Amino acid sequence: MNFDLGPDQRDAAAGARDFYRGSASPTAAREALEGGAVAPGRKALADIGFLGITVPESAGGAGGSLLDLAVVAEQGGAVLAGPSLATAARAAVLVAGAPHLAAQLADGSAAVAVVDGPLPGSSPSVDAAGATLFLGLDDDGALVVGEGEATPGRPLDATRGLASVRLTSRRVLAEDAGQLWARARQVAAVVLAAEDLGAADAAVQMAVGYAQQREAFGRRIGSYQAVKHMLVDAWVGVDQLRSLVWWAAWAADAAPEELPLAASAAKAHAAEVLERAAEACVQVHGGIGFTWEHDAHLYWRRAKVDRLLLGDAAEHLDAVARLAVAGALG
Amino acid sequence: MDFDDTPEEAEYRAGVRRALEEHAAELLHVGAGEETVDAATAEAELRRTQRVLYEAGLVGVTWPREHGGRGGTLVQQAIVQQELARARIPALVNHIGLGMCGPTVIAHGSDDQRRRYLPRLLRADDVWCQLFSEPAAGSDLAALRTTAVRDGDDWVVNGQKVWTTLAHVADHGILLARTDPQRPKHAGLTMFVVDMHAPGVTVRPLRQMIGSAGFNEVFFDDVRIPDSERLGEPGEGWRVALTTLMNERVAIGGAGSDLGVPVETLVAHARQRLPQLDHDRQVLARQAVGRAVVASLATRYTGYRRFTELSRGGVPGPEASAGKLAGTAAAKLVADAGVRLLGDDAVYAATAEGDETWQRSQGFLPGLAIAGGTDQVLRNILGERVLGLPPEPRSDKSAPFAGGAR
Ligand SMILES: Cc1cc2nc3c(=O)[nH]c(=O)nc-3n(C[C@H](O)[C@H](O)[C@H](O)COP(=O)(O)OP(=O)(O)OC[C@H]3O[C@@H](n4cnc5c(N)ncnc54)[C@H](O)[C@@H]3O)c2cc1C
């Protein structure tokens, strides 16, 4: 057994950390709420190659594994970057049979989003705001691609680019695509969980840093058990989420039969871990944590939105139970 | 990244399986969901089981050869543990000796002690117990009051220990005692090996909340321990105890094995019980099962990560406490889901068919949240040693113990 990242993945994570820290931030996430652009934005992500990590080399991508992508996504999550690499990973699965689309996805020449819900309309879909090309599943189970009009709602977390879409054109890419669609959604759930891992880790670190310094009643607040134990529980959750994310991402390529259960486990856990971390982060900061200028609420917003995207915890816990009972644990 | 056995590991595993099959008739087995067998009623079978396993090379896998071990790797140790669980062999009678006392003797004992004790411990010729906790010293272990006073070549011990697992069948124990009350509480302690059959040692079994006898009170009245049975220097007892406690948390929360009932057992139970519930109840029960499975897998895979670090030569750090903390929480979710799936039978101590798996697990878990570091103490350790949060102010660390700073 060797359950650890390889040296290349560690290097990739370090590189991604530098890139994301230089190109996105909670500050940018706050500005996006007031009408600013989502950072680093699609073009920058395409230029550095992150949109094509799982796109085959023949289509201009890096031909990497989902684990390669997940370690990068974690770093994006830490600074609340957008668009989500979950969208790129999901689209890459869907367009695997259409190399020209895969190439456009990887180089950013098409702004691709994947829409959920009955076509030609859609429910709120990630990164649909500003997208130009949409992938969806029609009533007959065919994978379709087309253009459309995106209508964003008032954002709770502007970095997610959520919008409802009405397709104005569509053509069939593949008939009978139900299984492909399901797999793509599982892959996206893993990547979203990886971004949540990064965000939760950052929120815990921020809160720990404050608890080490802030004093009340003549002591640093981190010495109070009510504060300390809250932070420990949040940290344990993050540490455990990392294991589920790595396992699920690894399974996508190395043990595909384990992916459905692993992806649901990671997504269900991510929803709860990020929410706990972000709420603890606000609470530990006291009044300053409740201000617009402080970064805590941006992680809180990410938590409150992400927990509902691509299936909430209730849906994924149900899936885990059904899959396990059906024999998925062996 | 991979979760597979290497060819050598696969070969080792096959050898372990062969040995367990070959000796099956001589080994004690338990039913699904049972973890332990009452040492008081099955002592002879339990000792024989460990001896047979030792002779088959499956006990003391990682211990040095010179001390009777196999000089093997942590990976081999983990394989043996998995295969013992798979074959439904109960916890070894000397699990405290193997997990805690033995490693402490290896680290701090004299050559003579190692030679005399370790091979017999491995073969379960001697069963060991850990005599740390007292009525007034549990989490705050260094507040202990049992005294050892030097008298010629001996030490004379007086006091009381409590919650001592296995003391009722034990031959030896490691005993932490106060040898210098004039020094601050952590500095005045010394560790000894005590003969549980020595004059003046009285063991009284205590009944645990689930009804069985697992731990004891132990009284020491002028018990003489030769100085040659000291582990480490006088006054160094706290440092020696930390070796024991670190091994304990790794032994309990270690390399990805489930605490409590294995999650696969819950899943099999759900497979059978879910269809008997009405639709709304099924929906709720699946939430509980899903939550228990996620928590168990999160703990298991986190154990695999720690295990990977250890197998590369890392030393167990304070993170091991997280494994026990999270493993206890996951085990509670598993037990609770298992009990709820019983329907009307859930209010009884056993099902109509006499199955007590889930109630026993539910009743055993409160003890797991206390033994080997309570949940709260583990959170303090993690907060201070992993997150770097400040400790609480303390007034008991520097004043002489006898001065009342307890
Ligand atoms: C099943 C079982 C087997 C055991 N086997 C052994 C054995 O073989 N050998 C042995 O020596 N001991 C054994 N113990 C004893 C065990 O180590 C102690 O019970 C444990 O350390 C707690 O000590 P205590 O019982 O004195 O409780 P206390 O320390 O009095 O704790 C009472 C409560 O106060 C809380 N508390 C205490 N200090 C703090 C703090 N600083 N911060 C926050 N909360 C705190 C605890 O979490 C707990 O909830 C066993 C216990 C059990 C339940």
Automatic annotation (TrEMBL), chain A:
Keywords: FAD, Flavoprotein, Oxidoreductase
A GO term, aspect molecular function: acyl-CoA dehydrogenase activity
Pfam family, one: Acyl-CoA_dh_N
Domain of life: Bacteria
Alphabetical list of Gene3D superfamilies matching this protein: Acyl-CoA dehydrogenase/oxidase, N-terminal domain, Butyryl-CoA Dehydrogenase, subunit A, domain 3
InterPro entries associated with the record: AcylCo_DH-like_C, AcylCo_DH/oxidase_C, AcylCoA_DH/ox_N, AcylCoA_DH/ox_N_sf, AcylCoA_DH/oxidase_NM_dom_sf
Positions of the Acyl-CoA dehydrogenase/oxidase C-terminal domain: 189-322
Keyword Flavoprotein: yes
Domain Acyl-CoA dehydrogenase/oxidase N-terminal: from-to ranges: 7-90
Cofactor(s) the protein requires to work: FAD
Family statement drawn from the similarity comment of this UniProt entry: Belongs to the acyl-CoA dehydrogenase family.
Protein name: Acyl-CoA dehydrogenase, N-terminal domain
Automatic annotation (TrEMBL), chain B:
GO function term, MF aspect, one: flavin adenine dinucleotide binding
Coiled-coil regions listed: none
Record's keyword annotation contains Cell membrane: no
Classification via InterPro entries: Acyl-CoA_Oxase/DH_mid-dom, Acyl-CoA_Oxase/DH_mid-dom_sf, AcylCo_DH-like_C, AcylCo_DH/oxidase_C, AcylCoA_DH/ox_N, AcylCoA_DH/ox_N_sf, AcylCoA_DH/oxidase_NM_dom_sf, Mycobact_Acyl-CoA_DH
Keywords: FAD, Flavoprotein, Oxidoreductase
First and last residue of the signal peptide: none
Domain Acyl-CoA dehydrogenase/oxidase C-terminal: 235-387
Domain Acyl-CoA dehydrogenase/oxidase N-terminal positions: 6-123
GO CC, alphabetical: plasma membrane
UniProt keyword annotation of Oxidoreductase present: yes
Domain Acyl-CoA oxidase/dehydrogenase middle, first and last residues per copy: 129-223
Cofactor: FAD
SUPFAM superfamilies: Acyl-CoA dehydrogenase C-terminal domain-like, Acyl-CoA dehydrogenase NM domain-like
Pfam families: Acyl-CoA_dh_1, Acyl-CoA_dh_M, Acyl-CoA_dh_N
Family membership: Belongs to the acyl-CoA dehydrogenase family.
Protein known as: Acyl-CoA dehydrogenase
